[in-house]
Amino acid sequence: MHKWTIGCFLLAFAALSVAPMAHANEVRDSNATIDGGEFGLVYKCGFGPRNTVVLDGDLTDLAWGAAPWHFVDHKTGTAPAPNDDNASLQFAAVADDEWLYIAIDVTDDEIQNTEDPAADVWKDDSVEIYIDADDGGTDVYDTAKGKWDTQISIGAENFGGDVDAPSLGGSGDGAGVGTRAAVVETATGYIVEAAVPLDSPDKWDFALEDGMVIGFNIHMNDDDDGGERDNKLIWSANDVDDQSWQNPSRFADLEFVSAFLAVDPAEKVATTWAALKR
Ligand SMILES: [Ca+2]
Ligand SMILES: [Ca+2]
Ligand SMILES: [Ca+2]
Ligand SMILES: [Ca+2]
Fold first, then answer.
1. What does the angle CA 100 – CA 75 – CA 32 come to, to the nearest 5 degrees?
2. Phi first, then psi: what are they for 241, rounded to 5°?
3. Which end of the chain is more exposed for a tag (fewer CB within 10 A), N or C?
């Protein structure tokens, strides 16, 4: 082999080595105790009385370790970002007897959280959790109990805020559902660790069963330079035009699966995930 040929190979190899790590959308469930569902269509949420997590923005809770995660890359949404470091996210959900917990681990290179609070937080760095209580998929928001549709907007304005009384926004009375949330800044963005009540007066009162489905979606708003939103990422494959805020037919699904995802603290058993899976 000629020296220049070897040189070309080495150059090509070097170029590959320094290329930024790129991830495509994926369901990350290789460490999970249940299968994770299908990206953009259905998230499988393990429920059980012991799947409680602590709302502190720290995702080392056992249940998060055993839950599937869905990774949304920078290209997936109506206003894609240049790369995953600029905007991307992964999320998971688990439920106990009282709460539907949702963790959103956001990657964002520039935090903007001081201009647009609460109802306007979609113009700052924020995430949105969508719920359609009866999975009705109507093209306008239902306001009947048991069919209620809502958009719960949670902004980075909540860094260091009151977990039990976060500043929230969103249509379908997103601020009035009773959501609690810890929002913390990280080295690569921020984490939202939220809890939506299974019993929200006048909206829904879920009795979870294996196979029960609700409408569900996750959005991320990314503002990097103040003013208007720069990037918009969307998990639901049905929401091709960013209409979830007023049209539940754009939501995807969350399916509840009976699953033991955490150790009962009362039993003080030092059980690891590997042991639980046996
Ligand atoms: Ca936690
Ligand atoms: Ca960004
Ligand atoms: Ca509905
Ligand atoms: Ca940002």
1. 40
2. -130, 20
3. C
pTM, full prediction? 0.88
Helix or strand holding residue 63 (H, E): helix 62-66
Report pLDDT for 266: 53
Round to whole Å and give the CA distance between 152 and 43: 18
223 alpha carbon to ligand 2 midpoint, in Å?
6
pLDDT above 90 covers a percentage of the chain that reads 85
Q: Which residue ranges make up each domain of the chain? A: 25-277
Q: Is 140's pLDDT higher than 90?
A: yes
Which CATH number applies to 25-277: 2.40.30.170, 3.10.290.10, 2.60.40.1190, 2.60.40.420? 2.60.40.1190
CA of 35 to the centre of ligand 1 (A): 22
Distance 217 CA to ligand 1 centre (A): 21
Per residue in 67-78, pLDDT tens?
Answer: 999 999 999 999
Q: How far apart are the CA of 125 and the centre of ligand 2, in A?
A: 8
